[in-house]
What does this fold into?
Amino acid sequence: MIEFWYEFASTYSYPAAMRVEHLADQAGVVVHWRPFIVGPLFNEQQGLTDSPFNAFPVKGDYMWRDLQRVCDREGLPLHHPSQFPRNSLLAARVAICGLEDGWTPAFSRAVYQANFVDDLDIGSPEVLAPLIAGVGAGPEHVLAAAASAPIKDQLKDHVRQARERGLFGAPSFVTADGELFWGNDRLEQALDWAVRHQDMESA
It folds into this structure.
């Protein structure tokens, strides 16, 4: 298995989220989706209160061009969001609501579509409600659950786990033996490692 750690405001998490399940299925690897908020880690580790792509414009300019190349290669549409990064807190809480019922992956892909293709405010309940309905869940019930203490605490726990695993950005992949891989371009390597680790465990 691999843990897929992702943040809805993260640019490179977009292509990773769109690719991970198909590639994992091909490799025979189970994906554990782990939505979290990367802002606290940026603040703790680098003293940043904004995306590093905004804090360092030359890095941001490169990232947007590189992301376009990545999306073109993968056949994914991309529209530069009019606001970056967007507030992803509510979307992350909603994604956690779906973990037990299994709709988190489909919902997560829909959120990335809304943010990086349709240029919608993913922090808005009005934007998220039809996405929740689109995966077969009840928007009113889910949004109420997302505002509850248990879901808020679970998201905080995801941030704690991310910190303990040594994460410093998104997307990140952690294999069963604790090996950390960072970035969309490390997805295939993470899957290869997970398969080899499982083969060694079985030998």
Summary: The mean pLDDT is 94.
